[in-house]
Each structure stands twice: as structure tokens, then as C-alpha cells.
Amino acid sequence: MLLISYFPQPRSENVLLMQLVQKRPEETLPKDLPAFVTEDDYQVVSSATKKVWFGDTAQVYMHIKPLHTSQLIDVKGKDGGYQIFLEGRLDLEMAALSPGKIIFESLQPGKSATFSWWINPFHVGMHYGRVWLNLNIYSNNEGVTWKQTRLALPIEMKVERFLGLAVTRARVLFGIILGVCSLGFMYSLYYRNINGRFGE
User: Fold this and answer.
1) Residue 74 sits in the same domain as residue 52
2) Nearest to 153 by CA among 131, 127, 126, 128
3) Separation in Å, CA 118 to CA 41, 74, 92, 171
């Protein structure tokens, strides 16, 4: 029965198509941004563990992939260079997050970006959170940063005990029981062998 605890846990998955820059009337973005930022379409695949045994590690990841590469790949622009970063942020309470809450990935033309978090929940029950994708544009000339929130996806994760225990303890307990049973079986074979010799 303990083998069930090693089976892959169910996951939720979302696939979205989007452009990185959202043109909002109230925001003024640089007009000389490279085309792979302003014009190209991207596919975003996000996935999260829906159910995890208490004591095990869950995962949330987000993969951003360009669907085509623009011919205009010069990131310097007319008025100086830009540093363009994607920011992934995972908000999830009562859990340890590795490598941390926020991850930055440099955005390069034609390149994909992947964000991955490993999660150790602190308690049993439902955990609710949200994974964010932000676009950060920094102007080397002006020293100004523009930031846009592009995605905010909800996450629900159910944490359960295995046979009333943390799954790691259950596995250790099973290992001890299995070891004791194995020793008992080996002793019984040895005892039968000794009795058989004396019987002869």
C-alpha cells in the first residue's frame, strides 16, 4: 500500500497565448522597445501539484516560450540599451519555497524562460495561493524601470497525511517493519536448516 505514496501526484495545467507588453492608455512605455518584446506572441504553460502527501515536496512551474522570433532583435533601441526581465512570483502561505518567492529571468530574443518552485507545506489542509508573471523593463540611459503585471493565476493545493502520518515517517516505519520481517524470515530459514541437520 505504501507504494501508492510514490505515485505521481495529480497536477493542474494552464496554457495561454499572450503578448508580453499590454498597451494601457494610462501607462507610458518607451517607444523604441525591441520588436520581440512588443510584437511577438508567447505561449505560457503553468502547472502546479494539486494534491501532495504531508512531508513530500510539491512543485509549481511556469514556462514562457516565443511562438516566433522577430527579425528585429536589437535590444539597444534608439536612445540607449534596455535590460528586460521576466519576474515570476509565487504567493503561497504556510509553506517553504525554494529557491525563494521571486525568481528573475533575463528575456532574450527567441529564448524561453522557465520558473520553477519546490514547495514544502507546513500543515495539512488546503493551501491557496497565486503565481504572478511580471515584465520589468529597465532603461540604462534614464535609470527608470517600467513594470507590468501580465498574469496572476490562482493555485489550490491539498495536503493530506498518509495513513495518519507524514509520508516520510510512514516510509521510515514501513522500512523498519520490512527490515524486521526480513530478519525474522531469514532467522526462520536458518533455524529450519539447523534443525534439519540435527534431524539427520
Assistant:
1) yes
2) 131
3) 28, 35, 11, 21
Q: What is the number of structural domains in the chain?
A: 2
Closest CA to 89 of 117, 121, 69: 117
Q: Which domain holds residue 173?
A: 163-200
β-strand 145-160 against 51-53: which pairing, if any? parallel
Q: Give ∠ CA 110-112-113 in degrees, rounded to 5.
A: 140
Positive or negative: CA dihedral 167, 169, 173, 178? positive
Question: How many C-beta atoms surround the C-beta of residue 113 within 10 A?
Answer: 21
Whether the model pTM is above 0.85? no
Same domain, 127 and 195: no
What pLDDT score does 164 carry? 46
185, three cell numbers: 524470515
Cell of 192: 529450519
Q: 97: pLDDT confidence band, cut at 50, 70 and 90?
A: very high
